[in-house]
């Protein structure tokens, strides 16, 4: 049973605990470790790109390898680093913020993380098994159908597996936030982190199915002989672009909304002021989510949709800037007149405002369809999306790492090293990407592996590469900071920042495995702050101390994900050497074992789903006596 | 959190539940009958070609729409209380799906950029 007892555990049992856990706090750590690993991997790929582009006519990477590296960099960063790291913070905080003992579906939460991990491993195995995907993270069908070998199959199958995990997790968070809020936690009292998680989850629920369908069509074209995108056979490659961007634009908001949530919490905490314009913030969040679905064709202005379609999508795109602007002004008004404390998270938050706004402004420039004919596929686009994604999402991830670290690990990251990281990262970031706007305007195309001497790109590219190295130094300092902090293991007490406003800071550290001995009663926005100012500084319970129900651990999520992982190999090698297959793989050695592997893999998954369905697993009760013992111990430790 | 410590129901509660269920059953049967009937007409119209195709197509689509509504409201319980969120999600889903189809038809095929 999942008791986190004070007893020392062996390495084996810790690993087993993490393989089987359904506890949102441990799953948060799994997301953090796996997402952090992929972040470093994607970062290394980024450094390879920048080294290749540092000087003209470089041959550090060959043209083909360069394509693989940029594809894997983008795919890894979006799907395997940014999203899982956001899920880490959502898992760590959202149940605590709304006063719940776990997510609505703890088993599915575990399934989500393992699908992501196995999908990510599958995708990255491509490096060792004949070459990585090379058609860009957007994998436009005209390129990806023609790409020889199995690279694109790794992309399609890997993303299909991890995408299923994401969809499951989105449903889980939406359900949790809608149904499991503590008494008194009305919608308009939810902290913004919870609100943005809710809207991002809803976006996941609507945006991932189009991606799933798009990838299924691609899989069938590449592996099972269909012709959805194969123009010679009557297919249409533009359909992939639509499906991808119907997913793709909401995806960028799935990333940025939780980032907004993290920053909103940090601003309120370290300005020691209530978030300015809370209801406008909520409204803007929902509006951004809704508009996010109406603008996908702004990525396709140059495809030739025609002037009417371009005009409609241009106007819709510009409209998104309005709610985004509302948010920017509200954050500024929140810090205005606050008593600001310059902690590491706050530094990221302050730096985020101008950095992200610059990305928003270039976004509006690109939204003007005729002007976009100039910007499209140039380094200007690269500069735009790195300003919003790094200046928005990555800043939020780094800020959130420092801010929520005590909740996740009961220690504090070193502030001095944190600030060193911040300054290196901040300077490096602007150095790398600001100059890329100009490179784009001067005509340097994106996704081309080198450039000639004498085109005027040399100095700018060198500056950009140096900036990238500064960011790499920042990440190294961060890793050192993490190692030192873990090694020292100096425990902190409740509310370690001293200015916690929301429920997650009202819990003793380490957070008990059942989160709340008694579900608290929420009396206003910033529930904990209300009690600090108007009450005795403790949350009031909303129920008497009784036994309560908790879910059991299970290994089945790992087994289910493993089954799909195995099946993916079968699907991938199935078309090899078949006469009906596309040219990319029809010349390869036939693999008669592929079909059995596919069937065995799917069999493992379906059998474990059957076990889950038919074998009852009713969970267990945490007894009142145990909780009382914990509370007493806390009392003694605290005094 | 699933509550598993269940207490036995009182007699009145049981009675009430019974009545509710009977009514529910009747509604389901009626809507099921109606749906079969509509399907039957749709098949009949198409097979016997009694009216021209221009009329049959919208008629069949109309029947399909009624059936979808019946399906959602009576079989999938959208009529019951506590389904506001499910409704909101489905309406939004419909809206997006229809918007996507319209734009697809317009810009992929009629606008036909590949031609
Ligand atoms: C003010 C809001 C924004 C506007 C008006 C906007 C507009 C645009 C436009 C028109 C493009 C397409 C340019 C082209 O390819 O020719 C684009 C690309 C992109 N945007 Fe934004 N954007 C905004 C915010 C964001 C945010 C918040 C993110 C992510 C967090 C983001 C991520 C991206 C990415 C990743 C691409 C490039 C995709 C690719 O081609 O690989 N954008 N943006
Ligand atoms: Cu977009």
TrEMBL record, chain A:
It comes from Salinicoccus halitifaciens. Keywords: Electron transport, Heme, Iron, Membrane, Metal-binding, Respiratory chain, Transmembrane, Transmembrane helix, Transport. Belongs to the heme-copper respiratory oxidase family. The lineage of its organism: Bacteria, Bacillati, Bacillota, Bacilli, Bacillales. InterPro entries: Cyt_c_oxase-like_su1_dom, Cyt_c_oxase-like_su1_sf, Cyt_C_Oxase_1, Cyt_c_Oxase_su1_BS. Residues 10-523 form the Cytochrome oxidase subunit I profile domain. PANTHER family: CYTOCHROME C OXIDASE SUBUNIT 1. SUPFAM superfamilies: Cytochrome c oxidase subunit I-like (SSF81442). It is found in: Membrane. It is a multi-pass membrane protein. This is Cytochrome c oxidase subunit 1. The chain crosses the membrane at residues 28-49, 69-90, 111-132, 152-174, 195-220, 252-271, 278-299, 311-333, 345-365, 385-405, 417-439, 459-484, 555-573, 593-611.
From TrEMBL, chain B:
Keywords: Cell membrane, Membrane, Transmembrane, Transmembrane helix. It is a multi-pass membrane protein. InterPro entries: Cyt_c_oxidase_su4_prok. It is found in: Cell membrane. The chain crosses the membrane at residues 29-51, 57-76, 88-112. The keyword Transmembrane applies. The keyword Nucleotidyltransferase does not apply. It holds the Pfam family COX4_pro. This is Cytochrome c oxidase subunit 4.
């Amino acid at each position: 049973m999942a008791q986190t007892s004070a007893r020392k555990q062996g390495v084996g049992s810790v690993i087993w605990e993490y393989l089987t856990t359904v506890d949102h706090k441990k799953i948060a750590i799994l997301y953090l470790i796996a997402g952090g690993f992929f972040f470093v991997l994607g970062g290394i790929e980024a450094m390879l790109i920048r080294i290749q582009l540092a000087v003209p006519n470089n041959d550090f990477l060959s043209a083909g390898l360069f394509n693989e590296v940029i594809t894997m960099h983008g795919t890894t960063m979006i799907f395997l680093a940014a999203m899982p790291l956001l899920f880490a913070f959502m898992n760590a905080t959202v149940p605590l913020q709304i006063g719940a003992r776990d997510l609505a579906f703890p088993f599915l939460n575990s399934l989500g993380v393992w699908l992501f991990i196995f999908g990510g491993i599958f995708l990255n195995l491509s490096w060792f098994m004949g070459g990585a995907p090379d058609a860009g993270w957007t994998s436009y069908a005209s390129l990806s159908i023609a790409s020889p070998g199995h690279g694109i199959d790794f992309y399609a199958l890997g993303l299909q597996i991890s995408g299923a995990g994401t969809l499951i997790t989105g449903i889980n968070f939406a359900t949790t936030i809608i149904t499991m809020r503590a008494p008194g936690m009305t919608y308009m009292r939810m902290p913004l982190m919870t609100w943005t998680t809710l809207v991002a989850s809803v976006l996941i629920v609507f945006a991932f199915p189009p991606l799933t369908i798009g990838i299924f069509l691609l899989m069938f074209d590449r592996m099972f002989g269909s012709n959805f995108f194969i123009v010679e056979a009557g297919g249409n490659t533009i359909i992939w672009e639509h499906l991808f961007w119907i997913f793709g634009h909401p995806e960028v908001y799935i990333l940025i909304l939780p980032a907004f949530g993290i920053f909103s919490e940090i601003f309120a905490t370290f300005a020691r002021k209530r978030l300015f314009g809370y209801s406008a913030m909520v409204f803007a969040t929902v509006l951004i989510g809704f508009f996010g679905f109406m603008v996908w064709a702004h990525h396709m202005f140059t495809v030739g949709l025609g002037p009417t379609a371009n005009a409609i999508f241009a106007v819709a795109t510009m409209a998104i800037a309005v709610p985004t602007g509302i948010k920017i002004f509200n954050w500024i008004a929140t810090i205005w007149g606050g008593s600001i404390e310059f902690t590491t998270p706050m530094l990221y938050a302050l730096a985020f405002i101008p950095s992200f706004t610059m990305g928003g402004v270039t976004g509006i420039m690109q939204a003007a369809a005729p002007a976009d004919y100039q910007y499209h596929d140039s380094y200007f686009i690269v500069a735009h999306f790195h300003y919003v994604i790094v200046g928005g999402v990555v800043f939020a991830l780094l800020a959130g790492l420092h801010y929520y670290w005590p909740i996740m690990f009961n220690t504090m990251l070193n502030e001095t090293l944190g600030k060193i990281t911040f300054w290196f990262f901040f300077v490096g970031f602007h150095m790398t990407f600001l100059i890329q706007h100009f490179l784009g305007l001067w005509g340097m195309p994106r996704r081309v592996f080198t450039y000639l001497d004498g085109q005027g790109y040399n100095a700018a590219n060198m500056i950009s590469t140096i900036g990238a190295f500064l960011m790499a130094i920042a990440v190294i300092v961060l890793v050192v900071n993490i190692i030192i902090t873990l090694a020292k293991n100096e425990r902190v007490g409740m509310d370690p920042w001293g200015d916690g406003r929301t429920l997650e800071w009202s819990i003793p550290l380490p957070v008990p495995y059942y989160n709340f001995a008694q579900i608290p009663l929420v009396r206003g926005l910033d529930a904990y702050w209300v009690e600090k100012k108007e009450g005795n500084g403790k949350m009031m319970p909303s129920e008497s101390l009784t036994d309560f129900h908790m879910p059991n651990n299970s290994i089945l999520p790992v087994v289910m994900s493993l089954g799909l992982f195995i099946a993916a190999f079968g699907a991938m090698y199935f078309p090899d050497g078949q006469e009906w297959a596309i040219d990319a793989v029809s010349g390869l050695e036939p693999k008669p074992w592929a079909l059995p592997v596919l069937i065995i893999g799917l069999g493992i998954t379906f059998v474990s789903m059957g076990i889950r369905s038919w074998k009852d697993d009713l969970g267990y009760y945490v007894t009142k006596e145990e909780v009382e013992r914990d509370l007493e111990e806390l009392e003694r430790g605290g005094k | 959190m699933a509550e598993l410590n269940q207490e036995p129901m009182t007699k009145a509660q049981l009675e009430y539940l019974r009545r509710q269920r009977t009514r529910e059953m009747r509604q389901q049967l009626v809507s099921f009958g109606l749906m079969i009937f509509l399907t039957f007409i749709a098949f009949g119209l198409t097979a016997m070609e009694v009216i021209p195709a221009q009329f049959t197509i919208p008629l069949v689509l109309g029947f399909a729409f009624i059936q979808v509504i019946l399906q959602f409201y009576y079989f999938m319980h959208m009529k019951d209380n506590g389904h506001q969120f499910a409704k909101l999600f489905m309406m939004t889903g419909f809206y997006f799906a229809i918007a996507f189809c319209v734009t697809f038809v317009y810009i992929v095929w009629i606008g036909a950029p590949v031609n």
